[in-house]
Amino acid sequence: MRSIRPIVAIGLGLALVASTAACSTRPPVDEVWLYYMNGSVDKKEFKECIDPNTKGPWQANNDTFALPTSLRTWNVAPTGGDTSQPTIVGSKPGADGQAGPQMDVWTTVEFYLNTNCDGGKGSPVVQFWEKTGRRYGVSNGSAELSEEGWDKVLANTLVPVQAKAMQRVARAYSADEMDTNVLTVDPKVLAAATPDKPVDREVWKKMEDAMAEEFTEQLRAKVGGDYFCGAVGTDKAGAPITYDRKTGVCPAVRVSITDINYHDPALQAKRAEVRAAAEDAKKKLIEAQSQTAVSAELAKAAKSPEYLRLKELETWLAGIQACAQNANCTTFVGEPGSVAVSTK
Questions:
Q1: CA-CA distance, 223 to 132, in Å (whole number)?
Q2: What is the pLDDT of residue 16?
Q3: How is the beta sheet containing 46-50 ordered, strand by strand?
Q4: I need a surface site. Which of 62, 136, 149, 196 has the fewest CB within 10 A?
């Protein structure tokens, strides 16, 4: 009987090791997991971060919450986006002070969740989870990421901040400028432009640049920290930087405008008619200018010695060809341009 006990003990030990190994945690390559103690004798508190594709501790009765490390997108588009509802903004007031037409702005935002875990409980990823992620059910305790919960987070943080920043920026531009993406510029400024120093008239780019700093500041205030990062950007000195979850480098999130048009369908249709008429007039003008240029070149050529010599040679060749068709015609050819024709 004594010899059986060590064998049983060894067997139980192996079973325990196997069970522990089987229940260990390993996130996929595009997720970081937050490990929280939640046993009957444990304090319900954060324990550690488990990096993507890294083996973590045995879960037992504790909780593991999943958060994404991959590049995420919030796409506002008529079809195929995360939402089909554009940001409605007011345009620049007229000279009489009347409000400008409302415009529909379609945008795309690409960003990373800041999953840097330096500092443990005080790190960006843990603070995001405890202040925001948990509230909207981004993940359950079994390391399952909820896309529905994630969309709720964005709809209640990123989206309203973007709308507020866009409203302020849009009022600096007229409806036509936003619709055509062309800034109205003084003709004298355009005339002074050179290939080395062109006039920047791209309205959407100007709006994006104006939004960048304000959007980041308002987003930080909304969620309580730098929990969202852009893919690339610049630091305070203007040097290029790239998001890095390991080092905590976190560029500002940037909003990209994909389209702007009139909110009122009637104004939108009218503007399309005006644009079509303008394009047609432009086409006709180019055709007329081309015909005028051709006529001018022909008139200039008709007065040149080369052109006169060409016409002389054409006449000479025509005479020879005509004579060749007549059996009674004899042609005496000298230098090109001189020909004697006799008939029998």
A1: 7
A2: 40
A3: 46-50, 31-36, 63-68
A4: 196
Over the chain (344 residues), the average pLDDT of each successive run of 10 is: 40 41 74 88 84 86 93 87 90 91 95 96 96 95 93 93 93 95 91 88 95 88 93 92 96 94 86 69 72 71 70 72 68 55 56
Q: HSE on the CB side for 76, CA within 13 Å? A: 23
Instruction: Using only the alpha carbons of the chain, give its radius of gyration.
Output: 38
Q: What is the pLDDT of residue 41?
A: 61
Phi-psi region of 185 (alpha: psi -120 to 50; beta: other; left: phi over 0): beta
Q: Which two tokens stand for residue 136?
A: 């909207």
Closest CA to 34 of 111, 114, 117, 112: 117
Retrieve residue 22's tokens: 């089987």
Whether the predicted model's global pTM rises above the 0.85 cut: no
Asked if 75 contacts 50 with a C-beta cutoff of 8 angstroms, the reply is: no
| Closest of 108, 33, 119 to residue 68, by C-alpha | 33
Considering only CA atoms, which of 204, 255, 250, 260 is closest in space to residue 227? Answer: 250
The domain spans of the chain are: 4-263, 265-303, 308-344
